[in-house]
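[audit] Reproducing an earlier prediction to check determinism. Same input, same settings, fresh worker. If the tokens differ from the archived copy the diff job will pick it up downstream; this log only records the rerun itself.
[audit] input (438 residues):
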Amino acid sequence: MYKYQRIARAIERNLPHYSHKLPTIRELAAEYGVTKTTITNALKQLEAAHLIYSRQQSGYFLVDQAENPQTTTGLFDFANASPEANHFPYHHFTGCIHQALNTHKDDLFTYGQSQGFPPLIQSASKLLQADQIFARPEHIFITSGAQQALSILCQMPFPNSGDTILIESPTYPLFEQLAELYNLTAIPIKRTKNGINLKAFNHLLNEHNVKFFYTIPRFHNPLGFSNTNAHNQTIADIAATHNTYIIEDDYLADLDTTNTQPLYAGAKTDHVIYLKSFSKVLFPGLRISVAVLPANLASSFHTYKQLTDIDSSLLPQIALQLFVDNGMLSRHLDELRQHYSTKLDLFQSIVADHPIHHDLPYLPPKSLKTHLPLPNHFNLRHLMKTCQEQRILLPDNQLPGALDTAHIPLLLELSTIPLDTLEEATQHLLDIILTYLK
């Protein structure tokens, strides 16, 4: 028996003594006197046995909380970014999978096309056009999640021969890790509720040979801010002047109920790469995203895509194409937008009506990823501990320096928490915060 297997058994025996969340890997390593690698392998074994489950950037949890943590009395989850399972049309999508198996069974025994399932590309093209994104089919690629597209773009050469990338600060944590993995020189530019500093943006592009600027204009991850159309237009114009490409990660595009356009739609030159994900509106396990490439990048991207995984999984591509073409996605999105709009309006109104709003410089952005701007003297560490004791889950990856010098953000996820418990959960959280502000 390997050491990690013995440790896994020891942790399993102690599971009843832990709360809903296990100690960190570092804490477990100290507790059992082994390396973090041994603990990681032990936890993977317990996860494979369905005794625990992991949440990205949040740690490991007991599996009895995984079915529906919100139904446990007093447990409120502001940490999980996964969409609500009960708002997904399983029956309809399952029907599309069965139809895909019946009508395309022969295709499943051959390799597909590395660019993507052609009918899905056509369907994706129509979805993009509805958002003012017009692209030729040969410039549209189906990837195994947006992360694969980002990985390819980090690796492949660009015509501008850039040796540096520009990223928002803060930004999507896994992209930061991806840039570090590929040893890319990444220069941060501050992202605020007003967007980025355009003069600073222009200066950085003057001073550095920037390959691309990675940005999340709508529903910024993790702060939740959205740019105006005018701000996006100026960003696109400045980047084009410096022959710098832009990667627009529009991961929540389908949930926007405003008149905000993608940055891509207002760009006057062919310098914008557009990424669209289905993870938040369907389910993360689908692992299908759409990438729109400029003409002079499409061929190189295609080559890297083909050599990376030959092709993305065909069955979910066919099922998604049927789901889109049969009008099921459109109906699902209509219901989802209404649901999330109601949820976000309620959350913001609760904050506005609570005494805490006097201590906030602005209300939390209306986004599934949002934050409360708290005074910079606020002790997040103590709040996290108190909330855990009160069975309120908060994201572990808090970023105290993400706002201005006077404020720190309390990052929150509103995706998973049900509408019928949101008011109670929010009131409870705000009451706790208020005690620390007095």
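[audit] rerun output stored. Observation attached for the diff report: Residues 65-69 have pLDDT under 50 and may be disordered.
[audit] end
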